[in-house]
Every structure is written in structure tokens, then in C-alpha cells.
Amino acid sequence: MRIGLVVEGSYPYVSGGVSSWVHMLMQQMPMHEFEIISIMPKPMTSSDYKYTLPDNVSGVTTLALNQKQARPSRPRALTPEQNQQIKTWMTFGQVNQSIYPLLESSIGTPEQFFSSRLFYDLVTSSYEEEGQAGSFIDYFWMWRSMYAPVLDLLQADLPQVDLIHSAATGYAGLIASAIKERQHVPFILTEHGIYSREREEELLQAAWIPSDFRSHWIRFFHHLSQEAYRAADDVITLFDRNSELQAQLGAPAEKLRIIPNGIDATALSALTRQPPSPVLRIGAIVRVVPIKDIKTMIHAAKILQEMFIPFEMTIMGPLDEDDEYAEECMGLIRQLDLEQEVFLVGKVDIRSYLPQFDVCLLTSISEGQPLAVLEGMAAGVPWVVTDVGACAELINGRSFEPFGPAGFVVPPVNARRIAERCSWFYHNREDARKLGENGQARALAYYRTEQFISEYVQLYEERGVAYGGHRV
């Protein structure tokens, strides 16, 4: 079977997180061929890859959001009904997969569409209906910037596949929905974090968007998510809380399914733990980017220093995904006089580090089901995590589980609570060891690679047969 994997802002150009999940999925399914469709903010080439592609990857199609993808085409005369369809879809009136052929080939190129009477009338009527009082020119350009990537992506040349699998809604879900319509193949959607909620949080804090336009952008991303939910044959996420959110945001209940992440828990559990040290050894497996809130972690380290707790904090993860933020973090370490305690070591082999840690930290302000936490749990390391995504579920377990807590859950952006919990680990070594054992047992029972791969293998086969098994 040739499987198309659609990703946004990740594989193979960004390491960790969803990219690790994609890489593992392909490595564990040598019987299938994979086509990667990678949506990135800017043009990228194979020299930018962060991964060596598995042998069963047959191609990578990279689509840059700021680069013209559209094929040359000539606009066709549209009927009044088709004009109304486009208006209804673009004003978020309803999701409608049958709109794709119109946007792909009937309206001409994006530039032709944006110069058309249809688009002008669409923006004008929307401006009036919304009761906008600000600059019409700014409103017009908001519409252009909102739909230019959509039309470019829909008019791009895309590979032929037997099944399309998107790792998000948003632009990735849009592409997957269009491929399903265009090629008549099954569409599987896996959301790690809830895309529309994440974009909403970002937009509410974005200084570059006029406040009058924020609600329009938020509605746009929710609209794309609802389109993906409607088009997908299966709407999958990693844990209970996310599945409930998907239902609230419009995903049909009969499509919902939970498939947790998986890791090589058996190998990680075999690592030999180092004996306790007089110094509290703290680890963090994390990309150094704002959403991981490394600065709160560093501020927690300063509080620990002021509490006279002897410690070393090792932050492991790539430093080149957001150079400016990485520099700010290194500057904060110097400013707080923590150069002897806090170390940014870059991307390393975590298996050589995990056995030495007394506790690991995750201070993210948004997460899905972090592989890093699962890896640390499997190695027997307890955690302090923020209450985002599946973190509380991983640490405290689900209602039916026999295992106890694997650490502590704290509110996001709370350096003092993190420091206090780290101090507890320094003063309670034997109880801390028990927390690590709980986490290890949970990881071995519920989060092994073979479990998660088996579910996707079965799902791929079921969907392939349902859409015509002779194709694959």
C-alpha cells in the first residue's frame, strides 16, 4: 500500500514531537510505501532534513506556504450556484468537500481569483455583514493572506496514494481532504494536539493581527478543522481529553478513536539506573522553542539555587529550531548566574543520559502526548510536568489502571511550584524511586511501540479493503 503522510511544520525538517512519531511509524511498517507531503512556512530542500529517510519512503513533496504552488490555469464561467458555494465556504457557512474541484481548477490561479469580481463582492458583502468599521483595504488584504495559502495548496501537484493520513487538521487536513476527494481514497486523521485550539491561543497573543481581525482568523482555523473532521474516515487522537475536545469542536462521535503513542519501552526499561548522588540531577528532553517554555524551567533553577539545593539541570534537545529563543535562554542562564548548574547540551543520545537523572521536567504551555515523558517513564525516571495535553494522564494514570503516580503535575508558567517539587525529590529519594517504578510499569503496560503500530497496521488494512482492496 502506498500511504501519503501529510505533516505541517515538522517531518523531515524538524526533529522531535510529531516528527519522531512519523519516523517511527514508517520505520515499523516496512511492508508499506510512504509518500511524505510536508507543509512548511518557507521553501526547504533535502539539505535541511533532520532525519535520514527510511528505505520505504518513496518521495517527499514539500509545499511552502509563502511560495506559489498553483498550476497555470484559466478561470471558467461559474454558475450562480457555484458562486454561492464558494461564498458560503469562504465565509465559514458550512463545510463542503465538493468545493474542492471549484477551487482547484475552476477559479483560475489565486492571483486571477483575487482580481476577480467574485472575490471583491465576497469581501465587500462580508465586510458589511460583519459590521466592520475599520480600513476596508486592511480587511481586503486579510482575506487575501488568509486564502492565498489555501488556494496554492489545493492547486499544487500532489502524489498518487492508496490512503492519505494527516497528522493534523489545518492546512494538512485540508490537503488530505482534497486528496480523498480527488483520488477517492480513505483519509485517516491523527491529531496530537488540537490544532484549532493551538492556533486560537497563538492568535489571541499575536501582536501582528489587528484585534478586529482576530476572531475572523480564529473562525478560519476552526473551519479548516471542521472540514477535516467531516472528510476523515477516522478521527484519532492520543488520549481521552483530546477526544472530548474533538467531539466538542464538531468531530462525529462515530469516527472518534484513541490510539496512544508508543515507545521502545522494553529497551528503555533495561537501562541500568545510576545510584543516587549528593547533587539532585534534573533532566529535560525538549526542543528549545517558546511553546516548551524553557525560560520557566530556568527560573525554577534559580529558585532552587536560592533554596540552597545542590543540583545540575541538563536540557537536551535541538538548539537550532528557534535561534533567537535559544540565545535568549542562554542569556537568561548567564543573567541569573546559573552557568554552573544549568546546561543546554543540544541534541544527544538520551539513553546515555536518562540513567543518571533523579527527576525530569516538562514545562510546556501546550502538548499532545509527549514521547519524552513516556521515554523517561520507561527508563524509571519520575517527572514534574505541567498540566497540558496528556501529561496529567501519563503521570497519574487513568481510572482503570493499577499503578500509582509517576511524579507531580503543576500549573503552566509556575517556576516556584516546579522548584518546590524538585526540592521534594532531593529530600525524598526513596519515595521518588517508587514514583519512577510506577511510571515504568505504566509505560510497559500501555505505551509500547508494538501496540501502537499494530493498531495502525490493522486500520490501514481495514480502510484499504473498504475502499477497494484490489488497489493495494
Would you kindly provide a brief summary of this structure?
The protein is an alpha/beta fold. It has helices spanning 18-27, 80-90, 100-106, 110-114, 117-129, 136-154, 170-183, 195-205, 211-231, 240-248, 265-269, 294-306, 323-335, 371-378, 391-396, 415-427, 429-446, 449-466; strands spanning 2-8, 33-40, 57-64, 163-166, 187-191, 234-237, 256-258, 280-285, 311-316, 342-346, 359-362, 383-386, 407-410. It has three domains: 2-69 and 156-261 and 451-471, Rossmann fold, CATH 3.40.50.2000; 80-145, no CATH class; 265-447, Rossmann fold.
Q: Can you describe this structure?
A:
The protein is α/β, with parallel strands linked by helices and 472 residues long. It has 3 domains: 2-69 and 156-261 and 451-471, 3-Layer(aba) Sandwich (Rossmann fold); 80-145, no CATH class; 265-447, 3-Layer(aba) Sandwich (Rossmann fold), CATH 3.40.50. The protein has 18 helices and 13 strands. A 7-stranded parallel sheet has the order 3-2-1-4-5-6-7, sandwiched between helices. Helix 1 (18-27) links the parallel strand 1 (2-8) and strand 2 (33-40). The radius of gyration is 24 Å and the shape is globular. The N and C termini lie close together (5 Å). 42% of the residues are buried.
Largest sheet: 7 strands, parallel
At the fourth CATH level, what is the homologous superfamily of the largest domain? Glycogen Phosphorylase B
How many helices does DSSP assign? 18
Cα separation of the termini: 5 Å
Please state roughly what percent of the residues sit in beta strands, choosing from under 5%, 5-15%, 15-25%, 25-35%, 35-45% or over 45%. Answer: 5-15%
Q: How many domains would you count in the coordinates?
A: 3
Strand order of the largest sheet: 3-2-1-4-5-6-7
